[in-house]
Design goal:
Helices cover about 30% and strands about 30% of the residues. With about 280 residues, the chain is of the alpha+beta class. The strands form three sheets. Strands 9, 10, 11, 12, 13, 14, 15, 16, 17 and 18 form a ten-stranded mixed β-sheet that branches. Strands 2-1-8-5-3-4 form a six-stranded antiparallel β-sheet. It has a two-stranded antiparallel ribbon with strand order 6-7. The protein is globular and about 50 Å long.
Length: about 280
């Protein structure tokens, strides 16, 4: 059984709880971040913690723990679980509220470590399907615990295409991101990814570095028709890493299989994460 850190205590996952009057329960007020380990080393932990703090700032949620303190708690929680590879979820809740509404500043910190479970191999071998949906996120740069739009979008996507692993948000004719991933398209001779009005993924940031180093990246808005006409598409996230998308709605992308540039990027990602694990850098 996993060991979680719950507001100052390490407890068995089955016994982990927060107050029913926490604003996370009553109002969905809270932020979180999620990462995984490579070789037991939390990947880009500092970047994830900086994003967590920024998310809290964006919704005016008190997050009094500094980066070093958060990092120490997370490393201790990972150590107590001793999984070969781990998923790490960090949550800052709103705490108690005046009249069950306005926060008093007594936020709670949760760190949940579970075994890493690899996505299905066919995602990478055959490529996945995605479905587009009209959604405009509120405060897209904040990673909040309000996932109602994402959940309903994915439920709708799964009904339209049972093999769809992601719903892609569209607003005013432009694609922005998935419910739990960022997007890159390859067209003609370079990769393109949206630059703003989206969650700034940590995996996305590392993929951007790989592509910029090769001079293959353009950052700009992507029209829906352009997205569907891409030569290749990948989704990026901590859980997905780099996943080929070979079908958008009822449109086949490229040859309907992971393309040459996608396979190259996947190899680069594996090499980079292996090197990161060997270096053992934490923050």
């Amino acid at each position: 059984m996993s060991v979680f850190y719950i507001n100052g205590e390490f407890v068995d996952a089955a016994a982990a709880s927060v107050s029913a009057t926490d604003l996370a329960i009553l109002r969905g007020y809270g932020v979180f971040d999620f990462l995984r380990t490579y070789g037991g080393v939390p990947f880009q932990l500092g970047a994830h913690l900086r994003r967590l703090k920024r998310s809290a700032d964006l919704i005016e949620l008190n997050c009094p723990w500094d980066i070093e303190e958060l990092g120490a708690i997370i490393l201790e929680t990972v150590k107590r679980n001793a999984y070969p590879e781990s998923n790490i979820r960090i949550v800052v809740t709103g705490g108690e509220g005046e009249g069950g509404f306005l926060p008093r500043g007594d936020s709670r910190l949760l760190v949940m470590v579970t075994p890493w479970d690899a996505p299905p191999a066919w995602w990478y071998k055959d490529g996945a399907h995605v479905v587009t949906t009209e959604v405009r996120r509120h405060l897209p740069e904040a990673k909040t615990i309000n996932y109602i739009p994402g959940i309903t979008a994915q439920l709708t996507a799964s009904k339209r295409d049972p093999r769809a692993i992601e719903a892609i948000y569209v607003a005013d004719g432009f694609v922005s991101e998935g419910t739990r991933s960022n997007i890159f398209i390859f067209k003609e001779d370079h990769w393109i990814t949206p630059a703003e009005d989206l969650l700034l993924g940590v995996t996305r940031a590392e993929v951007i570095k790989l592509l910029e180093a090769a001079g293959l990246l353009e950052m700009r808005d992507i029209r829906l028709d352009e997205f569907r006409a891409a030569d290749e598409i990948v989704l990026t996230s901590s859980t997905k890493e780099v996943v080929p998308a070979v079908r958008v709605d009822d449109v086949t992308i490229g040859e309907g299989a992971p393309g040459v540039m996608t396979r190259r990027l996947m190899r680069q990602w594996r090499a980079m994460t292996a090197a990161y694990a060997s270096a053992g850098k934490v923050l």
